[in-house]
Design brief:
The complex is a heterodimer of chains A (about 200) and B (about 45). With about 200 residues, chain A is an alpha/beta fold. Chain A has one domain (about 10-204): Vaccinia Virus protein VP39 (Rossmann fold), CATH 3.40.50. Chain A is built from nine helices and five strands; from the N terminus they run ααααβαβαββαβαα. A five-stranded parallel β-sheet of chain A has the order 3-2-1-4-5. With about 45 residues, chain B is α+β, with helices and mostly antiparallel strands. Chain B is built from two helices and two strands. Chain B has a two-stranded antiparallel ribbon. The longest helix of chain B is centred in the last third of the chain and has 7 residues, at about 30-35. Chain B starts with a helix and ends with a strand. The chains are: A alpha/beta (about 200), B alpha+beta (about 45). Strand 5 (about 175-185) of chain A pairs antiparallel with strand 2 (about 35-45) of chain B.
């Protein structure tokens, strides 16, 4: 079950709140939030390889706030082109970049300047020239059509009010036969209209 | 989510794994109330 956006939800405010919260996570990952962050959480709760995470810059792993693990869904192969939608500080993106290697490409898209800057800096620090981080939105991806082998995303699509547009964009950028390896929020119960208008719950 | 992916023509759509990602957070009770959890989802474009 997924969440459908009420037609009168203030999507501009929702985008602002999402951007604000995750910019704060980058600036202060040890701050008070109502969701887990960091590499220890990723390893214990989501099954990431702790040694792989330890080899990444702390500036990238500390703000990680994903809710699943796209890398456990399927193998990302050398030479492939991967797109990480809402790449954040870049943890999943850099893991993907290591898998595709120098013959591949790992493109990250995020709507916040703080995340784009952090992910780009970490890629440079690791010498991963195959990483390309772009500012953009899940509903208007700055990516060429039919150019992506694997789309990954982790805890982002649930925050996008216009989910149909986001999925249309995923369809557009994937090559025929391309894979979607999506980590996202699912719900077991139908939400009421009032609940779906509650921006605190959307951003939580 | 699964029905949306199917309606878009994706193939092999499936939930691969679920995660209790809100355990031990201040939102755990809310997550339990609504059955909210993280999930790994796979789909392939035809």
């Amino acid at each position: 079950m997924s969440v459908t956006c009420p037609v009168d939800l203030d999507t501009q405010r929702l985008r602002f709140e999402v951007s604000n919260i995750y910019s704060r996570v980058v600036a202060e990952p040890q701050g008070k939030f109502h969701f887990h962050r960091g590499p220890a959480y990723a390893a214990e709760f989501l099954g990431y390889d702790a040694e792989e995470l330890a080899a990444l810059p702390a500036e990238t792993t500390a703000p990680f706030a994903g809710i699943a693990n796209p890398h456990r869904i399927g193998t990302i192969r050398a030479g492939e082109t991967v797109l990480d939608i809402g790449c954040g500080a870049g943890m999943d993106l850099l893991l993907a970049a290591r898998r595709v290697g120098p013959a591949g490409k790992a493109i990250g898209v995020d709507m916040t300047d703080a995340m784009v800057g952090r992910a780009s800096a970490s890629a440079r620090a690791l010498g991963l020239a195959q990483v390309d981080v772009r500012k953009g939105d899940a509903t208007a991806l700055p990516v060429e059509s039919a150019s992506i082998d694997v789309v990954i995303s982790n805890g982002v699509i649930n925050l996008v009010p216009e989910k149909e547009r986001a999925f249309d964009e995923i369809v557009r950028v994937l090559k025929p036969g391309g894979r979607l390896q999506l980590g996202d929020i699912l719900l077991d119960v139908e939400l009421s209209e009032d609940t779906r208008r509650n921006i605190d719950l959307w951003t939580g | 989510m699964i029905s949306v992916l199917n309606s878009l023509g994706f193939e092999e759509v499936r939930i691969v794994e679920r995660f209790d990602c809100f355990r031990a957070t201040t939102k755990e009770a809310t997550a339990r109330k609504y059955g909210v959890h993280g999930a790994n989802i796979f789909a392939r474009k035809p």
